[in-house]
């Protein structure tokens, strides 16, 4: 059975990722890309669907004879995971990561710290989401003189086009379907293991040099983190889609050149250059029984005022926590951006349920235009120009077709595959269906088109020049958008119910036209500004008459409707209304009254009428809640915004990773993990605080 979602850590090589549980099992790994068929799929099934378990034997034994506990963390500013296992008085450290030096490899090292620990090691190689068991062959190694070398032995698993090679200081034995062993690690001893994916028509890759790969990978993550620059504090909140006031101006030459030729797809690693503590003596001895020297020490301590935490010190601690969370969130974005294609995958997983046992299970190993556009805003604002260029160029390649055929969702290389398949897997804790593919790709979503054009407008404001491809594509999108006014869709939430005219979707069309007008009037671009201006004003009038409910005094989800949803919190983000506009404040109040959970987090929408095609309400939503936190901060309710941000950080897992939702009844993360847009939204909240 899979672990709780919050018990997983992400490993990434910027092309794909693996999820390793606190129990020491890698239960999810797709190779060689995020959206490839899974090699390990126990996350959505059982051990026979593929996993790689490396943990103390006592933790695997159903009746442990020793106390077992763990402490884990990432090495600073990396995705190198370190887990210390304590078994009674003995301990070992497991270090695991995916090298950034090329290939698709997972490396795991077990180092003895104290005493002796017996390790259980099980490797169940699979392909096609556990459906295919490869033919596994053990090859005995040889030394330079041709004699047998047991330390150079390897396992090769092969099935059709796919192959895996396992190298290790100890090679497990077993039946064809699962290799297992136990070995003992003493203090000072170290065992290293590596599993690499390769195409079966190629030779297996050579063993990884652990020390070299570890140093290189740590340096690359650290150098990328060092490129981070905190935005300057905003003197006044800006009602713009990018919220990038005060950011360092990007180098136009770094981003303006769009190279769609193959040589642009270089390895991304080549470009990564860039409480007060109160001490208590615990003594029950009276002062009459203390020697003179100790008495003087105690008297001096008593005369020294204790450091009583102040409101200012609490705020400084909170701000430090927020900055750390922002940096980890930026690292999550880098981990989910493909170094091969420049796409941002929405999540590393598919079909993790938004409600345990429910049917809201979707494949998020795809790229949403909305996510990429929002990511560009935060990467550029925080000094990551290279990633901004990658994301920008990916968008242009994906959109390079008929502007009437814009999709909301694309594959990592810009594919337009809207086929959705059911996988023969049991599902996470029995949650069905398990999906591969995302059928929402063929939906029109007005917000996706608008978000792209808003982000390009923000790039212009930052000094990024247009080129031979970027502006012509934007013009084509704008001209196509003139025929979309008032069109129904299924909202940014991609509901399965009947389509409607959503206020947020139309507002994003308004933002698109506004960006087009600004491009012509303020930046001298060519285009039909008069037509776009007329369309913009028409959409604005429609929103203010049909998307605003006079009786309720607030904006509503659909034209002529009476309910609200979290997407309305983006209206001030794009500048349609001010953050403190009375109509917006009334909308916030309505949100608080109708879709706010008792915890303070909010739902995406009220589903009491099952309008999204599913029965029942889903769980409170991280992204929506963070949008509300930003709204609070920018409209003068900073204390409320901080309280919501603290709540979200408390709900994230111990490594600072968020899924899409949180189940308060069971105190568990739910939904695909980790969720890129949740981390983008967190970055925006911290930025709104001026940190």
Please, what is the average pLDDT? 87
**Number of helical runs?**
15
**Rg, Å, rounded:** 27 Å
User: DSSP strand (E) fraction?
Assistant: 15-25%
**Which structural class should the secondary elements be placed in?**
alpha+beta
**Largest beta sheet, briefly?**
8 strands, antiparallel
How many beta strands in the DSSP annotation? 24
Assign an overall shape.
Answer: globular
How would you portray this structure in words?
Helix 5 (311-336) runs antiparallel to helix 15 and helix 9 (470-481) packs across helix 10 (503-523). Strand 7 and strand 8 form a beta hairpin. The protein is of the alpha+beta class and 691 residues long. The two termini are 42 Å apart. The longest helix is centred in the middle third of the chain and has 26 residues, at 311-336. Mean pLDDT is 87; it is low at 233-292 and 294-307. It has helices at residues 57-60, 210-226, 252-256, 292-303, 311-336, 369-381, 385-399, 446-461, 470-481, 503-523, 529-546, 582-594, 622-634, 638-651, 676-688, and strands at 8-12, 17-21, 25-30, 38-40, 51-56, 68-74, 81-87, 90-97, 104-114, 116-124, 135-142, 148-159, 162-168, 173-175, 178-186, 190-199, 367-368, 409-410, 421-422, 435-436, 548-549, 554-555, 661-663, 668-670. Strands 1, 2, 3, 4, 5, 10, 14 and 15 form an eight-stranded antiparallel β-sheet that branches. The chain has an eight-stranded antiparallel β-sheet with strand order 6-7-8-9-16-13-12-11, with helices on one face. The protein has 15 helices and 24 strands.
């Amino acid at each position: 059975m899979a672990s709780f979602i919050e018990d997983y850590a992400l490993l990434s090589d910027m092309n794909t990722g693996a999820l390793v549980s606190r129990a020491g099992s890698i239960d999810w790994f797709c190779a060689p890309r995020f959206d490839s068929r899974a090699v390990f799929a126990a996350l959505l099934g059982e051990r026979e669907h593929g996993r790689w378990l490396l943990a103390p034997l006592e933790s695997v034994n159903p009746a442990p004879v020793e106390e077992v506990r763990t402490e884990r963390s990432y090495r600073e500013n990396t995705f190198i995971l370190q887990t210390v296992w304590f078994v009674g008085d003995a301990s070992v450290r497991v270090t695991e990561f995916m090298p950034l030096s090329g290939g698709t490899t997972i490396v795991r090292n077990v180092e003895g710290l104290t005493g002796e620990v017996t390790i259980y090691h099980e490797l169940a190689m699979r392909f096609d989401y556990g459906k295919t068991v490869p033919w596994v062959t053990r090859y005995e190694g040889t030394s330079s003189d041709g004699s047998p070398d047991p330390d150079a032995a390897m396992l090769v698993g092969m099935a059709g086009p796919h192959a895996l090679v396992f190298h290790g200081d100890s090679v497990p034995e077993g039946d064809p379907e699962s290799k297992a062993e136990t070995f003992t690690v003493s203090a000072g001893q170290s065992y290293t293991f590596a599993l690499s994916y390769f195409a079966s028509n190629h030779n297996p890759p050579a063993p990884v040099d652990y020390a070299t790969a570890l140093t290189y990978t740590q340096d690359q993550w650290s150098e990328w983190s060092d490129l981070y620059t905190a935005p300057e504090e905003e003197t006044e909140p800006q009602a713009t889609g990018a919220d990038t006031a005060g950011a360092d101006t990007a180098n136009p030459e770094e981003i303006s050149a769009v190279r769609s030729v193959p040589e642009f797809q270089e390895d991304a690693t080549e470009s990564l250059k860039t409480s007060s503590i109160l001490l208590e003596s615990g003594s029950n001895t009276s002062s009459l029984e203390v020697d003179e020297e100790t008495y003087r020490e105690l008297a001096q301590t008593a005369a020294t005022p204790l450091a009583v935490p102040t409101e200012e010190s609490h705020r400084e601690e909170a701000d430090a926590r927020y900055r750390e969370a922002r940096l980890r969130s930026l690292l999550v974005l880098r981990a989910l951006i493909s170094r091969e294609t420049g796409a941002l995958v929405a999540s590393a997983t598919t079909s993790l349920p938004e409600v345990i046992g429910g049917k809201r299970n979707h494949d998020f190993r795809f790229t949403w235009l909305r996510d990429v556009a929002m990511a560009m805003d935060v990467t550029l604002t925080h000094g990551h120009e290279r990633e901004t260029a990658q994301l920008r160029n990916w968008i242009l390649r994906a959109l390079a077709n008929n502007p009437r055929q814009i999709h909301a969702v694309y594959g990592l290389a810009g594919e337009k595959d809207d086929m959705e398949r059911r996988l023969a897997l049991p599902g996470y804790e029995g949650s069905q269906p398990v999906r591969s593919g995302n059928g929402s790709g063929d939906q029109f979503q007005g917000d996706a088109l608008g978000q792209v054009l808003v982000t390009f407008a923000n790039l212009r404001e930052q000094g990024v020049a247009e080129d031979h491809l970027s502006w012509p594509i934007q013009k084509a999108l704008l001209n196509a958008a003139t025929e979309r006014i008032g069109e129904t869709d299924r909202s940014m939430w991609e509901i399965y119910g009947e389509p409607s005219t959503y206020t947020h979707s139309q507002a994003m069309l308004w933002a698109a036209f506004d960006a087009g007008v600004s491009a012509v009037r303020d930046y001298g671009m060519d285009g039909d500004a008069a037509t776009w201006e007329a369309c913009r004003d028409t959409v604005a009038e429609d929103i203010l008459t049909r998307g605003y409910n006079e009786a309720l005094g607030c904006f509503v989800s659909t034209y002529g409707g009476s309910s609200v949803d979290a997407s309305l919190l983006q209206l001030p983000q794009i500048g349609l209304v001010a953050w403190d506009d009375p109509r917006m404040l009334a909308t916030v109040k309505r949100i608080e009254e109708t879709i706010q959970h008792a915890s303070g987090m909010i739902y995406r929408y009220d589903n009491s009428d099952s309008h999204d095609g599913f029965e029942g309400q889903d769980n409170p939503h991280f992204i929506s809640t963070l949008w509300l936190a930003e709204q609070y901060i920018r409209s003068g309710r900073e204390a409320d915004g901080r309280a919501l941000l603290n709540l979200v950080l408390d709900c994230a897992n111990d490594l600072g990773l968020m899924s899409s939702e949180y189940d308060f009844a069971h105190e568990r993360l739910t939904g695909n993990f980790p969720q890129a847009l949740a981390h983008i939204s967190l970055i925006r909240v911290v930025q709104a605080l001026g940190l």
